[in-house]
Write a structure and sequence with these properties.
Elements (H helix, E strand, L loop, with lengths): L1 H23 L6 H24 L6 H25 L1
Length: about 90
Amino acid sequence: MKSNLLTSLYVFMLAAFIGFEVIKRITPLLHTPLMSLTNALDAIAVVGAIILAGEHKKHTAPFWARLRIVSATSNIVGGFLITDAC
């Protein structure tokens, strides 16, 4: 169990570092199309989370769905703010 957690944390940190380095090298001209794509994907995630929040299959599902709604919505708003600033 502890090994799985450490492996997962290692993969997460490595993916975050590589993702940061890849995104850092993208020219500002490409930010708008990339952010519009991620905003569209996050909008789909928000709709799915709203559907999940409406279902009461498990006790923790509404909590995680609300958390996903907040995080995806903040990502959408942040995307619009970033592309508007460029």
